[in-house]
């Protein structure tokens, strides 16, 4: 009896101690955001629970309404990046306030790692709503409802492949300014912000589809993980361009920002409209873009990341990034069993939902999924009448006219091209041999080298994945390899 009482008291005491320590928890001053795929299963579960708490408290829906409310003040304009930086920062604060972990941070979805294998992205695993459709794929039950009370919709559309790492980095290193030098009152169609917004930011929205392509996109929790990644890419660009070293007063238009409103408080709905107060205690108002340009000024966020910086062979500012060393590869902490289940689930999904009808097939043929004109996907029926997807590469036809003289010249040029094939590595020899046949014979040596680099890029998915020895042998600098690998977004003129 006494024993039982004692035990009971100590449990009560323990609970009291735990809740006090939760309330007084000292989180580190800087919020460290990590990739979803690297969280442990427990961390992923904690995050899901925090989302649910936010939803139950009605606060989650405030964020959806805020995003819809601010549509034209936050999209297609200068504020796009700083506005979303603050928006997700506040969402993270809300997760801390309403969830069980007062020090929780927003994970990010580094979709560039999933480029080319979109359906297998770790974010679609069972711990993250499990479903590629927004419904439980066993029971069909709705597992997350929108602010308007409908079931979350997703309709994955693989015509919108994610930007690969090399494409994203190509954008990062090639845009020198936040915007162009044009008239500062019009909306910008060029510069880093426009490229990021219209290019790699747009594709995951379009790929996930459904709710994610509406202005109610924050109804889909993937929105926050996606935008954390967009924010991280902006931060990488800022760091790469040395904007991290600047005092807040030194930020200027058009290099670091665009338009006239760098010192105007950004637009968020007042507390009469939504309950969440978007004003910053520290600033005493809604933040200005300048307030959030430096990640270690009014906000304190640090991205833990294992790819971009390593790939650029560049040590990022440790105030902004915790980066893997050049030799480290970080692995997923969630267990193998989950991964296996996820894979099976996805296979099921592909069988039941995703295989296109015969009609779709003709539409999909010719669509370039990787932004490369020579790479198309083809759907073919196998012996069981199941549609199977194949990637088909159409080699360019060698161009020569078929009169005898040109043909003789072609053969001798081809032979001399093949004679230059002195590479020691079999891969390189194969590539060169193929290029001799595929490229116009008028191609210069440099053009062939560039094509070799491109070939390497395609294989590795990562220009800097080419070893230093390879680059040395190719007599190339990193910059040239990078340039050849990247497909920059089209630049529009107003
Ligand atoms: C790193 O970032 C901090 C904060 O923006 C800045 O004060 C510092 O100068 C930067 N360090 C380097 C080496 O650029
Ligand atoms: Cu948005």
Automatic annotation (TrEMBL):
Keywords, in A-Z order: Copper, Signal
Start and end residues of each Tyrosinase copper-binding domain: 220-231
Keyword NAD: no
GO MF annotations, alphabetized: oxidoreductase activity
UniProt key word Manganese: no
Signal peptide limits: 1-25
InterPro entries tied to this protein: Tyrosinase/Hemocyanin, Tyrosinase_Cu-bd
Domain of life: Eukaryota
PANTHER family: TYROSINASE FAMILY MEMBER, TYROSINASE-LIKE PROTEIN TYR-1-RELATED
Protein name, UniProt field: Tyrosinase central domain containing protein
Organism from which the protein derives: Nitzschia inconspicua
């Amino acid at each position: 009896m006494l024993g039982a009482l004692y035990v009971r008291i100590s449990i009560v005491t323990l609970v009291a101690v735990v809740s006090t320590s939760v309330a007084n928890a000292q989180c580190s001053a800087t919020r460290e955001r990590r990739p979803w795929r690297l969280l442990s299963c427990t961390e992923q579960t904690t995050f899901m629970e925090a989302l649910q708490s936010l939803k139950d408290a009605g606060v989650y829906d405030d964020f959806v309404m805020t995003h819809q409310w601010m549509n034209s003040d936050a999209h297609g304009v200068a504020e796009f990046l700083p506005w979303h930086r603050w928006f997700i920062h506040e969402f993270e604060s809300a997760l801390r306030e309403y969830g069980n972990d007062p020090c929780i941070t927003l994970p990010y979805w580094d979709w560039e790692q999933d480029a080319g294998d979109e359906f297998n992205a770790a974010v679609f695993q069972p711990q993250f709503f499990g479903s590629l459709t927004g419904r439980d794929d066993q029971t069909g039950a709705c597992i997350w409802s929108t602010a308007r009370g409908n079931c979350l919709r997703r309709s994955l559309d693989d015509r919108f492949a994610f930007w690969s790492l090399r494409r994203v980095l190509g954008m990062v290193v090639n845009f020198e300014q936040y915007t162009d030098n044009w008239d500062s009152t019009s909306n910008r169609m060029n510069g880093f912000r426009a490229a990021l917004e219209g290019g790699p930011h747009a594709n995951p929205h379009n790929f996930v589809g459904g709710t994610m392509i509406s202005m109610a996109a924050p109804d889909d929790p993937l929105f926050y993980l996606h935008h954390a990644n967009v924010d991280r890419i902006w931060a990488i660009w800022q760091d790469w361009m040395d904007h991290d070293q600047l005092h807040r007063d030194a930020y200027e238009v058009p290099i670091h920002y665009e338009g006239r409103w760098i010192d105007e408080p950004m637009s968020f709905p007042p507390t009469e409209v939504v309950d969440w107060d978007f004003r910053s205690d520290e600033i005493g108002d809604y933040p200005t873009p300048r307030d959030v340009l430096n990640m270690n000024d009014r906000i304190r966020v640090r991205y833990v990341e294992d790819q971009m910086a390593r790939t650029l062979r560049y040590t990022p500012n440790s105030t902004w990034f915790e980066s893997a060393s050049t030799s480290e590869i970080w692995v997923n902490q969630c267990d193998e069993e989950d991964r296996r289940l996820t894979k099976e689930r996805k296979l099921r999904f592909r069988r039941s939902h995703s295989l296109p009808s015969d009609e779709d097939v003709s539409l999909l043929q010719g669509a370039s999924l990787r932004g490369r004109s020579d790479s198309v996907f083809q759907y073919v029926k196998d012996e069981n009448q199941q549609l199977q997807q194949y990637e088909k590469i159409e080699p360019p036809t060698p161009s020569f006219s078929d009169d005898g003289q040109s043909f003789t010249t072609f053969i001798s040029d081809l032979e001399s091209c093949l004679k230059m094939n002195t590479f020691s590595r079999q891969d390189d020899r194969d590539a060169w041999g193929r290029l001799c046949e595929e490229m116009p014979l008028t191609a210069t040596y440099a053009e062939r080298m560039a094509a070799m680099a491109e070939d390497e890029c395609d294989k590795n998915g990562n220009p800097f994945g080419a070893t230093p020895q390879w680059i040395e042998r190719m007599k190339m600098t990193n910059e040239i390899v990078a340039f050849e690998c990247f497909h920059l977004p089209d630049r529009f003129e107003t």
